[in-house]
Write a structure and sequence with these properties.
The complex is a heterodimer of chains A (254) and B (254). Helix content of chain A is 52%, strand content 3%. The N terminus of chain A is likely disordered. Chain A is mainly alpha-helical and 254 residues long. In chain B, helix 6 crosses helix 9. Chain B is built from 10 helices and 7 strands. The chains are: A mainly alpha (254), B alpha+beta (254). Chains A and B meet through helix 4, helix 7 and helix 8 of A and helix 5, helix 8 and helix 9 of B.
């Protein structure tokens, strides 16, 4: 090595930094938040009961963790497990969540300009090549948005006719929040127009550009929608569960 | 006027440590003013690189209180002054002296990026582009090459992967790959020679960019999606095959 290219002597061990701000707060809160929601979702998925309100053949409130309701005799476990791998895979491979758990759990890096975990780092190569499957989970997630929108519509169809209950609003917001999260997906942004270099040269270039800009608007707040929708999915399940168990009465507005 | 203590890194090559200086603050002072004050009155041999003092030349990159920043754009009244202000060189690059690092690695990487290769001119001897075709890439041209993103990137900082070109050059590639007139297919080298798979999109580059370029969302992720579409998406591969396109056909120009 010559004198202007010495080895890097200033490398720092894990967590060591000259930063004076509370850099650890973000990844810690993110990690705890993710653990909390994953723990709740896992618990709720294992329950297999109290996930709908109304008659079994035509429930008007259905937990999003169990929607679409697959009644399979051959399946010995909770029906939620037939569903959750798809939205779970969508979130796990989501670009925002990747940032979140790489920082919070993988410590690669724990914070910007903070000493990271010393290991044979390979990034999103080799084992993590599966992250490239995100677009396939997106296709499924888009279907789920429509399924949950249908559930929201059903939440206004009570046995005694059309009406509005607190659960109707909860399920509607659930579909809206999940839609805002899904339609801001980076892979969708790529597919609707991000893969085009010359909008004026391709068929439907102008509408594609407009759609790309709409998706971009949602994408700019992808992190916020990720957290809002994750919280609301859990809240929706909890609400349906509590109403189903008779612990909470559903407020009927109309 | 308040006296502020600065811990300034002094050293050369592989040797060095912090030395303390006291500077009297004045109205509107930035960190670079303080460093130049130290150089003028207390440490005439303090090495610091600077030029425009307007946040446009990218020369005075350093780490202030552990965060990669331009010293000329860091106002003293934005820092906590009840404790010493730490100033050190960029840690990802070999140290020459004090606050000056050897950034020639970046220029060597730059030479590896093939230059813009436009389509042939139209019959009237011109190139035509619509404004909305190039809106996306104009953001990338704001880069001032301060190399703060290269400094903070943990792939370069903690793991020293020689085949990863870093955020600054992924921006340059994004500007070329998304250019409506460029004809080069750069995706194969992006995946292999330039190591885009090493980036785990933790967004530190975006956080430190003084030009507020959304490096991760607007450059790196779109490039990752193009690589995924070209090399890891069997449906896209079949679609290209059905249309008689080569697997490495440059996207966006079909």
């Amino acid at each position: 090595m010559n004198e202007t290219s010495p080895s890097l002597p200033l490398q720092r061990p894990l967590f060591v930094t000259e930063r004076t701000d509370n850099w650890w707060l973000g990844p810690t809160a993110t990690g705890l938040g993710l653990l909390f929601f994953v723990a709740y979702l896992t618990w709720a998925a294992f329950q297999g009961v109290h996930f709908y309100v109304g008659p079994e053949d035509a429930p008007y409130y259905l937990s999003p963790l169990y929607s679409p309701w697959i009644q399979a005799d051959w399946w010995p476990f909770s029906p939620a497990f037939l569903i959750l791998w798809a939205p779970g895979g969508f979130r796990f491979t989501c670009y925002y969540y990747r940032k979140a758990y790489y920082r919070a759990f993988s410590l690669s890096p724990p914070g910007c300009a903070v000493g990271g975990r010393a290991h044979n780092y390979k990034g999103e190569r080799v084992l993590f090549l599966f992250q490239n499957l995100h677009r396939f989970f997106l296709y499924l997630a888009v279907l789920f948005v429509f399924v949950l929108a249908y559930d929201a519509w059903l939440a206004f169809q009570f046995p005694d006719g059309w009406g509005i209950g607190a659960g109707s609003i909860v399920l509607t917001l659930n579909a809206v929040f999940l839609g805002a999260f899904t339609f801001g997906c980076n892979s969708l942004r790529h597919l609707v127009g991000g893969n085009v270099d010359c909008f004026s040269c391709v068929a439907f270039g102008r509408p594609r550009f407009k759609i790309w800009r709409i998706v971009t608007r949602f994408n700019e707040h992808h992190m916020e929608w990720a957290w809002i929708s994750l919280f609301w999915v859990c809240f929706t399940d909890l609400y349906v569960r509590l109403v189903s168990m008779g612990i909470v009465g559903d407020l009927r507005i109309l | 006027m308040t006296d502020v203590t600065f811990r300034v890194f002094r050293g050369a090559g592989t040797q060095g440590g912090f030395e303390e200086y006291t500077v009297q603050l004045s109205e509107g002072m930035v960190v670079l003013d303080a460093v130049l004050d130290i150089q003028a009155s207390q440490a005439g041999d303090l090495a610091v690189r600077w030029n425009c003092k307007a946040g446009k030349c990218g020369s005075c990159s350093a780490e202030v209180n552990g965060k990669p920043r331009l010293m000329c754009m860091t106002r003293m009244n934005t820092l906590p002054l009840d404790q010493p202000v730490t100033i050190e060189p960029m840690r990802s690059f070999p140290l020459i002296k004090d606050l000056v690092t050897d950034v020639k690695r970046n220029f060597e990487i730059n030479k590896r990026v093939r230059p813009f290769k436009p389509k042939p001119r139209q019959a009237d001897g011109t190139h035509r582009m619509m404004q909305y075709d190039i809106d996306r890439i104009q953001e990338f041209h704001k880069c001032i090459e301060c190399f703060l993103c290269q400094d903070v990137c943990h792939v370069m900082r903690d793991h020293q992967k020689p085949d990863f070109i870093g955020p600054r050059f992924l921006i340059r590639l994004a500007a070329l790959v998304m250019h409506p007139l460029d004809t080069e297919n750069r995706l194969t080298e992006l995946k292999d020679a330039f190591g885009i798979g090493y980036c785990n999109i933790t967004k530190c580059c975006t956080e430190v960019c003084p030009e507020n370029i959304k490096i991760t969302d607007n450059a790196i992720i779109p490039l990752k999606e193009r690589v995924a579409g070209n090399f890891y998406d069997p449906l896209a591969w079949l679609w290209r095959k059905a249309r008689g396109k080569r697997p490495d056909t440059r996207p966006g120009t079909e």
